[in-house]
Design brief:
By secondary structure, the protein is of the alpha+beta class. It has 25 helices and 11 strands. The protein has helices spanning about 1-5, 25-30, 40-45, 55-65, 70-100, 115-125, 130-140, 165-170, 180-190, 200-210, 215-220, 220-240, 250-265, 275-285, 295-300, 305-335, 340-345, 350-360, 365-405, 405-420, 425-435, 445-455, 490-495, 540-555, 565-570; strands at about 145-150, 160, 245, 460-465, 470-475, 480, 485-490, 560, 585, 595, 600-605. A hairpin with a 7-residue loop joins strand 9 (about 585) and strand 10 (about 595). Helix 16 crosses helix 19 (about 365-405) and helix 19 (about 365-405) crosses helix 24. The chain is globular and about 75 Å long. Its cofactor is heme.
Length: about 600
Amino acid sequence: CCAYAAGDMPGTESASAIPTWHSCLLLLRLAPSSTKQCQPCEISHHTGAIWPLSTFSNIGHLAKMKRVSMPAIVAVVAGAFVVIIAGFMANRRHVSRLKNGGAPMPKHHPLFGHLIVLKEAIQSLPRNTVMHVVVRRIAESFPGGIFYLNLWPFNAPIMVVANPYVASQVEAAFLDKPANICDTLEIINGGPSLLTMHGSTWKKWRALFNPGFAAGYITGLSPAIAEEVAVFCKLLQDRAEKGEVFPLEEHTLRLTFDIIARVTLGARLYYQTQGSALADCLRRQVYWTQFGTTFNPIRRYLSPRPLVQKYNSYRMNQYLDKEIDKRFEELASSRGNSAKNSRSQSRSIIALAMDKYLNDVENKEEVSKSAFKQLAKPQLRLFLYAGHDTTSSTLLYSYLLLSRHPLVLSKVRAEHDQVFGPDFSLSNITQSITTDPTLLNQLPYTLAVVKEVLRIFPPAGSMRAGRPDLFLSDEHGQQYPTAGCQIWTLSLAMHHNPSVFTQPEDFIPERWLVGPDDALYPKKGAWRAFEWGPRACIGQTLAQLELKVALVMTVRMFDVQEAYGEWDEMHPRKGVKMVDGNRAYQAEMGGGGAHPVDGLPVRVTMRV
């Protein structure tokens, strides 16, 4: 769940969706009809930009109405342009103050701001490259790890942070997420969740779920996780017998969804083998949701997206209502049993939260049930969303990097032999994990591999809203204002910054095992796959446990080799296909995190 519980990166839209220099004019020409009145203040509040699209979309509608006079149409057009000019001037004054104060930024065009810089970065990359890869390309020109981007009228100015010293100040400031990011996340999650809540409300719900994500409790879930991974292994065996090239991602997504549903809801979905309406609806919801970065006006405004989102949300809530009702019934029954400790070992995360919630409201079950359901459903949808998408991508990149580094793979296999014995049959490994889940805590090198994979391919980043009273300082005392800006902690750029990590482009798990005197030892706060501080990812322990179980049960049984060459022969396409020489670059998929492009085509073979 690393990416979203930590960060909510809004830049998961593809590079091809970012505007070229003429996209502003296209928006004026193609905006659809609407009856909503222009509300520039509201637009500015939610998006950080003043762009009266609703006014322009009314023009064509008004022109068709005979009773509307030409002066009225002229007045609407004139008013719209006044708003645009006012927004443009306000933005340029803001950027001018930043530049005059010494704020680092790319070359700023008087009319198009940094849209041209963004366009040039996009054109050097494949069309579906995830946005944080695009901005990382720009960040390479700013080794200090901090700079500003002005993407008006599509967004408020963005302060990009790729410096751990500065990033630690961002987390310490307890900043809210920007309103446009919250709005998008609440479409996916169906309401306020731990990602979008603030203050006392966030503290209350975080406290309710903390027991279910505690390290000791999570370790006890290992047998259930192993049972789901065993299904995954059998499916890989079938693929290996067929000897075909296939995208591995569909299998890993179904695996991680089965796991997160089981540990949070206490329900087996059998998504890997039978399908699941809940999983399909959530994945469609993610696919149909964008973080405000779709600039194609037809795609953005002439789309069935709202209807699809409402339908998916309705179906998901139907399922969750039934599951919560079941957990309430089980809880009511179990409260009559005095053996509380034995019960708690087998209960799901939602059941633990439910128990604590009822205790907090003095066991008023009938009064509290309805309120809990309404507030808990967005949290459950968050866990299902964040707990399957990015964990799947990390598992894929783990297989990829291990296959590219045979020496590291041999060390991982040796560690597994030492801890679990040389018998790597599915039945033996599953039995070992079920009998003694704490064996998974004896895998320091495997955990180092997971951390190094997340360093090289972090699924997302973190976006926060600046404040007028907040100035961030670098190591040299230079101050950077945050007023009127969104602050993007760009983990990818930080993880690949040579002033932050030694040999940042190399896959070196040992960097996580050396002492502070070693040159490889990471700087404090530099690894931000799960973010830091009180609002760090609540599910990071679960995510790392899932990855360890999956690797323990698969890397000795299978050889997984990327097959992009064969895939490209079967599915030829023109254009740029690599990012920095890597064919398995991070691509976008709707509102989800960064995914290996084309779902990571592979060949799987059984090891003797």
